[in-house]
Amino acid sequence: MSVSCCGQKIKLETSQNKNQSVMNKGKVLIVFFSHAGENYSVGNIKVGNTKLVADEIQKFTGGDEFEIVAEKSYDMPYNELIKLAKEETQRDEKPAFKGEVKDIAQYDTVFIGGPVWWGTYPQVMFTFFDKYDLNDKTIIPFTTHEGSGLASCVEDLKTAYPKAKVLDGFAIYGHEVRSKMNNVDNWLKGLGYYNMKSLIEQLHQGAHIDIRDTEYQQEVHSEIDRCRHLCFIINQTDPGEKEKVLSLEHKLIDDMAENAFLTPPFQIDLANCLHLGNNVFANHGLTVMSLGGITIEDGAMLGPEVGLFTVNHNPEDVRIVYTKPIIIKKGAWIGARVNIMPGVTIGEGAIVASGAVVTHDVESHTLVAGVPAKEIKKL
Ligand SMILES: Cc1cc2nc3c(=O)[nH]c(=O)nc-3n(C[C@H](O)[C@H](O)[C@H](O)COP(=O)(O)O)c2cc1C
Q1: In this structure, what CATH number is given to the domain that contains residue 331?
Q2: Rounded CA gap, 237 and 264, in Å?
Q3: Could you tell me if 189 and 226 lie in one domain?
Q4: Does 170 share its domain with 245?
Q5: Is the minimum distance from the CB of 39 to ligand 1 under 6 angstroms?
Q6: Is residue 7 part of a domain?
Q7: 229 and 185, same structural domain?
Q8: pLDDT for 144-195, tens place per residue?
Q9: Any idea which of 39-48, 69-78, 292-301 has the lowest mean pLDDT?
């Protein structure tokens, strides 16, 4: 699904870490090592914890990434890797790595990050430190770990580059990287960087966002305010003035096919994340929370008082939200007072019986009912 939402980007400078601000300090390189596969506390992961943090830094800084990939393979069960890494550390081994950084002189600031392995960065990162002289640069260390924090990484970088300006560094638990990326974002903002992507784009890519953030208030609430105003006007308009209602609906929803129609009154919070196909019809009382993106395909019909909800809250801190899109495929029929929850796709020609709460995808041409909705029969 392609969801195009626009939002304003704003520059944020916080008072936090002001003395460590590196904004406007030139070109950024992000050097990191990360191990995908079986790992402590997160199971078998396709993308390593540190790589996710490095990618987030890239989004904020627009810098180039260099991933240190060892020539030898670390693709092995966790317990074997622990043993191997311990031996490498004890022997102060310097495993070779693949590739090279082109023109290291062009960079002014270098983020250096990796997992903590036996109290410091993996040995292959020290091979990198031996090869590249970063003494004239600002170095910003970061780690992901399972209890050691920055361990001796900052000290080891200061030893490797005694003349460089090595900042305090940032550490995050590996098992928290996926749910608490906003901690990384706050650290980067404190350094004077800001995210190049709109907040809505970030949410659509799985980001968890704190609704107290100024950026959230600016970008999301400006659209919410616009929609509230237009919904108010539409909901007050005489239903006899159908042309007027329709033209206001098109003003509200940019991506709405000519012959779609929503029966007022309705409440839509972010119309710029709502996409309506041909002949879509919704009866009165529709409630839409579309921050995560909602697509209703051609010919789908919605009964009275249907609710579509794409937003969820982090149970540890309910002010942190994340979203998943809803897709209602062609010709589906959603009964009265159905609620559809984040991430659900309703298949083509499916029917959802009145009063159902849909928490999982519904296959095409299937009737579901109940709370939570379960399959009744194939159609
Ligand atoms: C070989 C090995 C050694 C580790 N040693 C430590 C350690 O000394 N302290 C610690 O807090 N975590 C340790 N961990 C946990 C990792 O630092 C943590 O899971 C990290 O987030 C992994 O990042 P990655 O997925 O980017 O490789 C170790 C993990 C491995 C695989």
Answers
A1: 2.160.10.10
A2: 9
A3: no
A4: no
A5: yes
A6: no
A7: no
A8: 999 999 999 999 999 999 999 999 999 999 999 998 988 998 999 899 887 7
A9: 39-48
- For residue 42, give the ligand 1 atom closest to its CA: 19
- Which of 193, 226, 253 lies at the terminal end of a domain, its last residue? 193
Q: Are 326 and 342 in contact (CB under 8 A)?
A: yes
Question: Does 209 fall in a domain?
Answer: no
Q: Whose CA is nearest to atom 18 of ligand 1?
A: 145
Does ligand 1 have an atom closer than 6 angstroms to the CB of 120?
no
Residue 104 φ/ψ region, left for φ over 0, alpha for ψ in the -120 to 50 degree band, beta for the rest? alpha
**Residue 277 forms part of a structural domain:** yes
Q: How far is the CA of 42 from the centre of ligand 1 (A)?
A: 11
Nearest by Cα to 326 from 275, 253, 272, 260: 275
Q: What range does the domain containing 75 cover?
A: 20-193
Residues 348 and 280 in one domain: yes
CA of 79 to the centre of ligand 1 (A): 12
Q: Would 231 be classed as within a structural domain?
A: yes
Distances (CA, A) of 255 to 49, 79, 225, 271: 37, 52, 19, 9
CATH number at residue 128: 3.40.50.360
Query: Confidence band (pLDDT; 50, 70, 90) for 10?
Result: very low
Burial class (CB in 10 A: 0-12, 13-18, 19+), 221: middle
Q: Could you tell me the two tokens for 258? A: 């000519």
Ligand 1 test: best mutation among 55, 117, 170, 184, most atoms within 8 Å of CB? Answer: 117
115 close to ligand 1 (CB < 6 Angstrom): yes
